[in-house]
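The following record pairs a protein chain with its ligand, fe (ii) ion.
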Amino acid sequence: MSELVSPIKVGPAKDVLLLHDGSPFAKTVARLLALDYRLGGHNLERDPAPAAVSAQALVCCFSRFRSRYLAGVRALAQRFAAPPVVLLAAQSSQSLKLVEEMPGTVCLFEPLNFATLKQTVKQALNTGAEAAWSKLQPQNRQALQASSQSFQSCFAASARGEPLPVEQVFAACRAVKDSFAGANFGEWLSALQLHHDRSYRHSMLVCASLTQFCQTLGVRDADLERVTVGGFLHDIGKFKVPLDILDKPGALDATEEAALQRHPSFSRDILLAETGLDPSIIEMAVQHHENLDGSGYPDGLTGEQISDLVRLTAVADVFTLLTEDQTRQAGRTPEAALEVMANARGHLDLELVRRFRAFVLDGGADAAAA
Ligand SMILES: [Fe+2]
Ligand SMILES: [Fe+2]
């Protein structure tokens, strides 16, 4: 099986380590965080000397911060790349001391805004993930860092209604494409899996599988670069979909699903505003949810109206959607996902699915000949 579909799951056993005082406030926070993250916990009220637990971010949650907690928090905080996120039911002079002592510490007080809490914890987690990238081979590290920075720049530009940083995106995609030529793609994928921004992770997984698949089909040079950029930008319109829909654990209701399905139209608005973008890149973003039988969206295109490159993008996108981990739920195995795709007559191009299956299960060389 190729490395592409069997990333080695390395990284911390837990996402978040929660230091707490066993209070009802801490229990409520623990329940909320456990909806999204693998959570480890330690009660400082019972035991002031916590053992180190492998996790990406430290969250401290106390009904009231007491000075006797300080040594335990201090001892663990130095193991994390990001300063702790501190959640308190009430402010106290001791809590101010904690914030003073650990610059960058984010302190949130009851009543907590759940969206702010999630966003703050996610930022701490991603700081941890990107710090772990420092151990990668230089080419992989630079490619991932460049792609993450470009993705954030695109998000910021889109939020401000400004043009996308297209040159930065092309440079990052060139670094990503070149990094695939390196020997250790498993390392690249494992490092990507540590990141907690679902949209970024998904876009990069599609970008990676599409680029590598197209390479096995003989696409090269500037054509391959366009494929990589198209994969990177294929869901750019999701920046306009509310985060609580994008990050919702479990199934969406009909209204949320309709909001999500607007993302290809948003992509069209964003990308058509750019000058000099190859039309094939825009088509990949706008049309990858079209189905051959006309049942897709946003335009209900059929058969010949859908280009080969868009069909390839749809195959890589569906495979990624089926295999990637959802919140608290592992994705399908590659074999199971390919089985589902092989039965998607009328939706996907089954000849491309067959070739993609050969690429995934037997490695690159067989796909071109399949
Ligand atoms: Fe999409
Ligand atoms: Fe997608």
